[in-house]
Amino acid sequence: MKDTAFQCPYCGVGCGLYIDDKGKVKGDSLHPATKGDLCKKPLYLPEAFDKGRITAPLFREAKEKPFKEISWEEAYRIIEQKLKTIPPDKTYFYISGQLLTEESYIINKFVKGFLKTNNIDSNSRLCMATAVTAYKMAFGSDGVPCTYEDIDDADAFIFAGSNAAISHPVLFKRVLRRRRESEQVLIITIDPYETETARKSDLHISIRAGTDTVFFNSVLYTIHREGWVNFQFVDGYTEGFEEALKYAEKFPPDIASSICDVPEEDIYLVAKVFAQSKKLISFWCQGLNQSLNGVMKNLSLINLHLATGRINEKGCPFSLTGQPNAMGGREVGYLSNGLPGYRDVRSEEDRRFMENFWKTEGIKPMPGPSITEAVDLITEGKIDLLWVVCTNPLVSLPSTGKVEEALKKVFLIVQDAYWNDSCELANLILPAAQIGEKEGTMTGSDRTVTFSRQFRYPPGEAKPDWLIFTEVAKRMGWEESFNYRSAVDIFEEFKRATRGRLCDLSNLTYARLPSRWGKRWLYEDLKFATESKKAKFHPARFEIPQDRGSFLMMTGRMKDQWHTMTRTGKSPSLLKGELPPYIIMNPDDARELGISEWDRVVIRSKLGEAERIVKFGKIKRGHIFTPFGYPREFADPINRLVSDRCDPLSKEPDLKFTAVDIIPAGKNINWCEEDGRRPFKHGRSRQP
Ligand code: SF4
C-alpha cells in the first residue's frame, strides 16, 4: 500500500490526512486548509476498521425474530417491493453528515427527484440547521463567509457555546498559535461551564444557560450607547438596524447582567472588543444552535458583526460544523427543504431547474417533515418505512424513549458500516463501506473540498452507499438517470448543478482537490445574497423554556470520542478517560446534596432517568454537563431525558437545556476497567 490521501471522518474541521504504507495515519502537510495538522482521533482509525462491522445484508420480517443473512439480490428485491407498494409519503429517509457528497447527492436525487417525496432529513438537523437558517436570514444564503486563513491575522476571538479545544482541536490550536504570535490577541469564551476552551482563553464569561440572546442584545445596546456603531457599514451595506436596536434596548447591561448572571463589565468588554479590535472572529457551535431559540441566538451574534462592520478583512461570524461533511450535505441540499447548489424546494425556479437537470418532473414544493416530526408521524402510523443511512437515531435523537417506540413500529432499514444501537430494531440491515473503502469528496468548515481515495477493500459484502442507492434505483426503473460507473461520474454531474451558484464547485475536479470553493471571502464586494444585496439585521427575540427542575442539564461532546462511539469506541486508547459515563457538577451543589466526587447519581427529567457518576468541575451553580454520545452498551442514552421541542425556524432540537433533578444513588460504582461495560442498571449488552 502506498501513501493515500483522505479526509478525516470525524469533525467538520476537515483535516487532510494520508495513510502510509505501514497503515499509519498522518497529517497531509500539502493540504491547503489544515497543512498537516491533526488531532488524536484519526490516529486510531486503523484499529477500528474491522471491529464490529456489518459484513452481509441481514433480514427479519418480525423484529422479535433473529436476523438471517441474505444476498444483495434478496435485499434489493425486498426494498423494491416495499417502495413499489408503500406510497412515497409514507416512506422516510434519514441520512448523515458523515456521507460523502456524492452519496448525499444520489440519495437526494433518488428521494426528491424520483421517488417524489421530500420525506428526507439529515442528522445535520441536530447541529447545523440553526446556523444554516441564520446565515440565510442574515446574508441571504448559507455558507461560511470567511476561511481558516482569517485566523492568522485576527486579534480577537470569541467562542460562544463551543468547546472547540476538544471538538474542533485543529482549529483551536491554530487560534492558540495566533495568540502566541502576538500579545494583542484576546480569546473570550462564553459558556456556563469552564471547558478546556474556557481554561485556555483570556476571559471566561460564565453565562446562565439559554440566555445568550440577552447577552448579545445587551452588547448591541452598549455598542450603540458608546457611539461605537460603524454607521458607514450599517448604512451602506445592511438593513433593519433600527428594529434590531429597538429590541436590544430592552436589555441594558444591568438587566442583562441579572438575567445572564454575568458581571456588567463583561458585557462592556465584549462590546469594546467588537468595536476596537482589528479583526474579530466569533466561533459558535451547538451551545447556540441546539436551542429553542437557536436561530435568534445566532442572529443576535451576527447582528454584532453587522453593527461594527466585522466582515471580511475585519472579521467573520464563523459557525463551526459538527460532522465531517455537513458542509457537503448542505451544498447538496440534504435537509428536507434543500436541493443541490443551495437551492430550495419552495422556489419554483429552483424546482424547475432541478427537474430539467435531472430530467424528471414533480418535485414537491413543500419541505418534508424534519426528523423529529417524522418520529411523531411514525408513532401516529403515517409513515410505514424508515431508511436510516450512516447514523444512530436511537442514541442521538432527543426523547429516545419515543424514538424507540417509533423504530419498533416502522419497517426499518439501517444502512451502516458498523453495528449500532438502531440495528437492534431493524428489519433489514445493509452493510456499507466506510472512509478508505470508497472514493469521493467531503467539504470542511471553511469550504475546502477534499477527495478521499480508496486504500482498502470493504469487508465481506459491504458496498459504497452511492452504489446501494443506484442499484435500487435501477430496480425501480430509473436506470437511465442512475447509470453511474463510479463516484467521479456523480461528482461531475453534481458540480454542474452548482454552476453560477454561491457554492459553485463547477471548476473543481478530483485531480485538482483539495481546493476551496468560492473566494476567500464569500461576500468580498459586500454584496450579499439577499434581494437588496444588503445584509439584514433581525430583532433577536429572547425566549427561554419555563421548565422546573433543580438543575439545568447541558449535553455535549467528549474529547476523544465522536458520533455515538460506533468507530472511536472501538479503540481502547480513545476510550480511556471517557468511561464511566459521567456528569460534571459544581462541588458546592454536590455538597449540598451530600454527593462526593465519583458517587453515583440518578438524573431525572419529566421524560425519564439515567444513572451517571459525578465528576466535579467549574460549572455554574445549578447547571450540570454530561456527554451525549454513550451507546446503550455503556448506559442509557442521556437523550432519553431530553425533550424533542425544537427551534420553530430551524426545527433543530433544544438539546442543550433540560430541567432535571439529581438524586444521590450510592457511594461506589462497580466499574469494570477491563472491558469498560455496563456499570449501571440500565446499561444493555450489545447484540452480536
Ligand atoms: Fe479529524 Fe477534526 Fe481532529 Fe481534524 S480536528 S483530525 S478533522 S477530528
Overall pLDDT: 94
Number of beta-strand segments: 28
Strand order of the largest sheet: 5-4-18-17-16-6-7
**What's the number of structural domains?**
3
Which overall shape is indicated by the principal axes computed on the Cα atoms?
globular
In terms of per-residue confidence, which ranges show pLDDT below 50 for 5 or more consecutive residues?
672-688
Provide the gyration radius in Å: 24 Å
* Percent of residues in beta strands: 15-25%
Determine the structural class based on helices, strands and strand pairing: alpha/beta
Q: What characterizes the major β-sheet?
A: 7 strands, mixed
CATH fold naming of the largest domain: Rossmann fold
Instruction: List bound small molecules.
Output: iron/sulfur cluster
Distance between the termini: 32 Å
The assigned CATH architecture of the largest domain is 3-Layer(aba) Sandwich
As a percent range, the share of helical residues equals 25-40%
CATH class of the largest domain: Alpha Beta
So how many helices? 23
Tell me about this structure:
The protein has 688 residues and is of the alpha/beta class. It has three domains: 58-126 and 326-516, 3-Layer(aba) Sandwich (Rossmann fold), CATH 3.40.50.740; 129-319, Dimethylsulfoxide Reductase, domain 2, CATH 3.40.228; 551-664, Barwin-like endoglucanases. Strands 5-4-18-17-16-6-7 form a seven-stranded mixed sheet, sandwiched between helices. A hairpin with a 3-residue loop joins strand 14 and strand 15. The structure holds iron/sulfur cluster. Residues 8, 10-11, 13-15, 38-39, 41-42, 168-170 line the site of iron/sulfur cluster.
